[in-house]
Amino acid sequence: MNATTEAEPTRLKGIRYFSPSAGYVLTGRDGLVHLPWEGRPPIPLLEEEYPAAEKAGGPDYDMVGRGIYQALRLDPECAFAVHYAEVLKEAYPHIVSELGGQVIMLEAKEVDTPYLDRKINFLKILSLLDQDNPGLLVEIAVTFMERGSRLSTLHLAVDSWYQAEKYLKKALELDSGLHHAAYAYGETLYVLGRYQAAAEIWQSVAAGFGVEEKRRFEARIASILSGRVPLVPPVDYLTALSVAVEQHDAGHNDEAAAIIEDVLADQIFAEQFPLSEIYYLLGTCYQELGLAAEAAEAFKRS
Fold this sequence. Notes:
The protein has helices at residues 50-56, 61-74, 81-91, 93-107, 113-129, 134-147, 157-174, 179-191, 195-205, 211-225, 234-249, 253-264, 267-272, 276-288, 292-301; strands at 15-18, 25-28, 33-36, 43-46. It starts with 14 loop residues before the first strand and ends with a helix. A hairpin with a 4-residue loop joins β2 and β3. The protein is mainly alpha-helical.
């Protein structure tokens, strides 16, 4: 049995899989597309289009394109994702072009938090289409780092920073000369509490940067070697702050303020992660608790 037919397709909302009969060939674009489907995985189709495909004995060109595109947008790591991306690359240049346009649009403006996940998925699809491109992996990682640092998505901090580490490691395996990616990789290790490993990474790439950046590296490396690091991994503090956000949203401002105060009591973390949004949240908590002077001081630091 072909490897593509051994695994089970990933269940996705609004998607139904079609297994074409032997001899099915995907055709389209006025004869430019002629792809025999033998050996390929089941075809993801939009649920509402499945009956028409079944009645016709197989989906047409547009049905297949829409189904694959939607499946990959929902889960670019779904079963057979690589195979589906190959079909897009071979048969749907207009969809590939649209993907690139979507990413450019999202990069051109400050996007709201929900769009970060969309951007990550688009980048993952592009990476499937161009698997030897480390730059796409770096872009995915940087977007995860952003997601793991935003106040509104701190509840995803652990997953975000581990994902960022994973993609930066993959990028560096493809091209070890990406100095800025290596610096970012060290940053992920630092946030995850692997301080010594971060110092080693930064030491190995410092020579590739300018004087000012090298000084910044050296200061951080010296801080690590002297033991001047946060008391717990920064990702744990970020997770604690996400709990503070939840407590504030639930109206428990005293508990939210207490959590934030505990985190900010670690001066090293507070210095290295100047989250202005956190001070604003703390000021809001104080304000709602009737602590005007404390609120004013917190707002001043936001």
